[in-house]
Write the structure tokens for this entry.
Amino acid sequence: MSSPKHVALLLAGCGVYDGSECTEAVSLMLHLERHGCTFDAFAPDKDQVHTVDHTAGSAAEEPKRNVMVESARIVRGNIQDVKKFDIKKYDAVVAPGGFGAMKNWCTYAIDGVEKYEIDADVKKMLSDCLDAKKVLGLTCIAPMLLPKVRSGLKFTLGKTTGDNFPYVGTATDAISLGANHVECDNKDIVVDEENKIVTCPAFMQDDTYYAVFMNIGQLVDKVVAMM
């Protein structure tokens, strides 16, 4: 009997506006377990850019909150500093969306498309995954990390038009950076077979929690099949 596949889950905090999108993060965990996979969670051990009051949408820089400490809320405290990530121990890397992905893993939400930079440890994690030909699964806005890792990769950020796609500018920005962006709704996924990347829109499309859960299930199904 073969041993279960082992996956690294990258988190960016806890909460859609300043961290990881919780529905997407938990959906990844549940679908991995549905397939019998085990996983370890990682996050940068550094301060968040700011903390957002999710009832009002207002952001405050004080008091400081730590990305890894906040991420630990999602995984019942079982979290590691991303600096400790070792690709040799894992069959895949997966990551949910949420604005924290664009604030705490990179600066896209702060500096915009022309100036944003990716956290060095997050970049190493993704680069190591691609170099080792392990599978990479990214949901929602998380694929916007990829243009800062390697040019010309194939992925989706949803669609560039449509009333139920509120973040069409992000897909347009990815295209401007040379990404091979594929239009997709959250009934489907996009696969870069050559580079072993699986992406899905999830909450890049306005839809229900269950629809997002099912879309991420499609992504995890493919990630597991490619391991």
User: Anything to note?
Assistant: The chain has a mean pLDDT of 96. Helices lie at 22-34, 67-71, 108-111, 120-131, 168-176, 209-226. The first helix runs from residue 22 to 34. The radius of gyration is 16 Å.
